[in-house]
Amino acid sequence: MEDYKLWLGWLAAASVVMFIGSVLAVPAILIRLPDDYFTHRRRKPAVPTGWPIVGYYGWRLAKNGAGMILVIMGLAMLVLPGQGILSLLIGVSLLDFPGKFALERWIVTRPPIRRSLDWIRHRYQRPAFRWHEDDVGPKQPGVPQQASRLESQLPRKESL
After folding, report:
1. Which domain covers residue 104, as residue numbers?
2. Is residue 59 in a domain?
3. Is residue 11 part of a domain?
4. How far apart are CA 65 and CA 57, in angstroms?
5. How far is C-alpha 158 from the chain's CA centre?
6. 143 is a domain residue
7. Has residue 28 been placed in a domain?
8. Total structural domains within the chain
9. DSSP string, 36-101
10. pLDDT in tens, 42-96
């Protein structure tokens, strides 16, 4: 029984640390992103200039390590207190993998996520994110939206 109490204590402490960390880190990262971060169709890979090779790969290793930690914490915060989805989004944005930018854009164009991002940026007097014209969607329920390229190719249901 003592082992379970120890584990519960560690889980409670980790939950509190993740909650406080996410409340501080998520807004700090979101307000530093430029407002046109999601307007481009593709992200060009950053080519370092003037970095020693060890520094460049050390930076990438640290960035991907931080991304993995945020992804794991975000998954945990889906059931624990904290900003799980936003932590997942920021963790994914730090990772390097093919198709990452398309996945990020798909996630942030979901109306609840988009409203959360805009609310955080508004709270810190930053302009809302601008979006690529194919990623349009209503910011608020009831606002008409323009059909994306994929939706315009789907057959429409005729009303009777």
Report:
1. 2-37+52-130
2. yes
3. yes
4. 12
5. 37
6. no
7. yes
8. 1
9. TTBSSSSPPPP--SS--HHHHHHHHHHHHHHHHHHHHHHHHHTTSSS-HHHHHHHHHHHS--TTHH
10. 766 666 677 788 888 888 899 999 999 888 888 888 887 767 777 787 888 889 8
